Amino acid sequence: MSKTIVILGAGVGGLATADTLRQLLPPGDRIVLVDNSFDGTLGLSLLWVLRGWRRPEEVRVRATAASLPGVDLVTATVDRIDIPGQGVHTDRGVIGYDALVIALGATLNAGGVPGLADALDAGVAGQFYTLDGAAELHAKVEALGCGRIAVLVAGVPFKCPAAPFEAAFLIAAQLGDRFADGTVLIDTFTPDPLPMPVAGPQVGEALVAMLKDRGIGFHPRKAITRIDSAETTLHFDDGTSEPFDLLAVVPPHVPSAAARSTGLGEAGWIPVDPHTLSTTVDSVWAIGDATVLTLANGKPLPKAAVFAEAQAGVVAHGVARYLGYDVPERLFTGEGACYVETGDRQAAKGAGNFLSSPAPSVTLYPPSREFHEEKVAQERAWLDRWNT
Q1: Domain ranges of the chain
Q2: Rounded percentage of the chain residues whose pLDDT exceeds 90
Q3: Rounded CA gap, 346 and 325, in Å?
Q4: How do residues 46-95 score in pLDDT, each as one tens digit?
Q5: Cα–Cα distance for residue pair 363/206, rounded to 1 Å
Q6: Largest interatomic CA distance in the chain
Q7: Whole-number Å distance between alpha carbons of 323 and 179
Q8: Lower CB density within 10 Å: C or N end of the chain?
Q9: What whole-number distance in Å separates Cα of residue 64 and Cα of residue 262?
Q10: Domain at 4-105+256-323, CATH from 3.50.50.60, 3.20.20.450, 3.30.1330.60, 3.10.105.10
Q11: With contact defined as beta carbons under 8 Å apart, do 305 and 12 qualify?
């Protein structure tokens, strides 16, 4: 009897899972990929849109039946997931499944900080976690004649731990002489004690040194409580406040309503086995930004595309084995790397094993042109693969 496998979300993890499953399963098994638009992008491209090196239309990822033959692409919004009934409820009806992969990512929640939505609406703030947002923030930076730009992490966890600091470097490069001569200042604010804390203090301290070397301020342990858009002021939980002329914000990230409806995780993020990405339900897996994968040091695995893509192969093999097919087991190793653009077409690279015990073993390599080109090649390969 044929089986139905449903994959929710056509981001990096969802696309790669569908692709691998189609290679592993017989043609009679149905693979259904559900997404609300099938119009996405790589996170690394967003930062280049912010810098002005890419236009939004150049970096859109649009999977089609031609790029995923043998996979049913269903454009629908997932309302809720009925785990006991093995059904996905969407605005286009209910889809039953024999195996389910949840790759719904994370959702931006501007309402999570008082005053943030008002600041975005008023134009004194911008965000770079969507294509339109990154392009609009680029224009705001271009128009700023003088003043102070605050790059704010409004809450944790968030996608790509290096992104806010990479954004600061790229904004400084875009400003050019306005930043170099002190006409525009840039300061970063984060609730964490160091950038990329999961990678360890050596990586964080090296990144702080890079920021200071470029003349970019770093302010740790600054948890935002309120943003006053009229006074253009940030208010923090330690009682301090900071003025700004333009705010570049990482909005709070929350799990999707559909992921929360599963009841698999108390906070909505779905706990998974570190090696298999399985959940507490035999027929359900979760990957990528929708998950919480706890490392040996008690911190969560960063939300990053490099991990979602690696997890996809693990989950595809796990699903096939669960359905009774003779395929080898794969395990998630925790190997991964991310890049930190410094604005001059060079990038630093943090690489290592995040599942190492007692803590991740990660090294931050100094900026080079070669690392920037590695990142360019990753973007090009992904766009070429899906935009058939």
Answers
A1: 4-105+256-323, 109-250
A2: 99
A3: 45
A4: 999 999 999 999 999 999 999 999 999 999 999 999 999 999 999 999 99
A5: 10
A6: 70
A7: 58
A8: N
A9: 28
A10: 3.50.50.60
A11: yes
Whether 4-105+256-323 shares its CATH topology with 109-250 is answered yes
Amino acid at residue number 302: P
Q: What are phi and psi of 325, to 5 degrees?
A: -90, 150
Fold of 109-250: FAD/NAD(P)-binding domain (3.50.50)
Whether 388 has a pLDDT exceeding 80, the answer reads no
Mean model confidence pLDDT for the chain: 96
In angstroms, the Cα distances linking 167 to 32, 162, 329, 339 are 36, 9, 39, 12
The C-alpha atoms of residue 131 and residue 128 are separated, in whole angstroms, by 7
Please report, in angstroms and rounded to a whole number, the separation of the first and last CA atoms in the chain. 32
Residues contacting 144, CB < 8 A, separation 6+? 175, 178, 184, 245, 246
Taking residues 208-217, report their average pLDDT: 97
Beta-bridge partner residues of 75: 35
